[in-house]
Amino acid sequence: MSDDFTLPEDKAERMERCAIFYTDVVPHNHALGLRLVDVVAAEATVELPYAENLVGNPETGVIAGGAVTTLIDATCGTAVFLKLGRFAPLVTLDLRIDYLRPARPGIVLTCVAECYRLTRQVAFVRALVHQGDPGHPVASAQGTFMRTEE
Amino acid sequence: MTTMSESTTPPLAELVRQVRKTREYKRLTDAIPYTRFMGIGVENLAGEMLCRMAFNPRNIGNSLIPALHGGTLGALLESAAVFELLLQTNTERVPKVISLTVDFLRSGKPQDTFAKAFITRQGRRVANVRVDAWQDDRTRPIASAHALFLLSEQ
C-alpha cells in the first residue's frame, strides 16, 4: 500500500507534505498568498492574508468573495487528502458558500475544513471561515469532491 | 455631491452611472482591485454584455493537467453576477453576496473563460442571479452558479 503519495503519520511531516499545495505546485494558491497553518486528523486550516489587490469593494476595503471561494476550495481539498491519508486526483463537484457576516478589512481570513464523509468515489466536506474567533464565522461552506483515480 | 481630494477617480456610484452610459466597462473593472488582479473584464460582444477572465498562468490550480483553479471559476461567476447587477439595475453600491452555489461541470483549460449572468429575480432587497461559464463552446459550460445578493437601499 505504501507509495510516494501516502501521507506520513508524523504531524510535522504531514504538514510539510500538504504544504506543497500552497506553493508553486498550485500557482493560484501561491498567487493569493494562501498558507497551510495546521492539519489535525481530517481537518485542514489555511490562512488568506489581507492584501489590497484582493479587495472587491473599493469603498469598504472588504475582500472579494472570489478570493474567499478559492480559500475554501483549497482548504477543503487538503481536508480530503488528510481523510484519505494520501494524495489522489480530485475534482470539485460543487461548493456552496453562505456569507454570515461581512469580513473586516485588514485582517487575515482563516478557513477550517473537515472531510466528514468519504465514500469510494465522493468526499463530503464542510468548512468555516473566521477572522480570529471560530465562534463568529464570516462564512460557512459545504462541498463535494470526486475522486478521479481508477 | 462629494468630492475626492487628490484624486481624479470618481466615487464608485458616480463611476457606475457614467459607465452605464458610456459602456467603458474597463474603467469600472479596473476600479475594483480584485477583478483587475484576476484579469476579469466586461465586454460587449455582438451586442451582448459578457464577462471574460483572461488566461494567466497564476490562475492555474492543477499544474499537471493543467487546469484552472476552481476558485478562479467561482470568482469569475460571482464577478459576472456583480457586474450584471451594477450595470443592468439601478444598484449603485457593490451588491453583497449572501450565498453562492457553484457546480463544476468540466475542468477549465488554460485559456480565456467567458461568463454570462442572468438576473432571475430582483426584489427591493434581494436579487437572485444565475451564471454560466464556458470556454470554446457556450453550449458546454464548464461551471455554473446561482447566487443571492443583498442590494443596499439607496
Automatic annotation (TrEMBL), chain A:
It comes from the Bacteria. The keyword Hydrolase applies. Keywords: Hydrolase. Transmembrane segments: none annotated. One of its GO terms (molecular function) is 1,4-dihydroxy-2-naphthoyl-CoA thioesterase activity. Residues 61-135 form the Thioesterase domain. InterPro entries: HotDog_dom_sf (IPR029069), PAAI_dom (IPR003736), Thioestr_dom (IPR006683). GO terms for cellular component: cytosol. It holds the Pfam family 4HBT. PANTHER family: 1,4-DIHYDROXY-2-NAPHTHOYL-COA THIOESTERASE 1 (PTHR43240), BLR7284 PROTEIN (PTHR43240:SF7). This is Thioesterase. It comes from Myxococcus xanthus.
From TrEMBL, chain B:
This is Thioesterase. It holds the Pfam family 4HBT_3. InterPro entries: HotDog_dom_sf (IPR029069), TesB_ACOT8-like_N (IPR049449). CDD domains: PaaI_thioesterase (cd03443). It comes from Myxococcus xanthus. Gene3D superfamilies: Hotdog Thioesterase. Residues 67-149 form the Acyl-CoA thioesterase-like N-terminal HotDog domain.
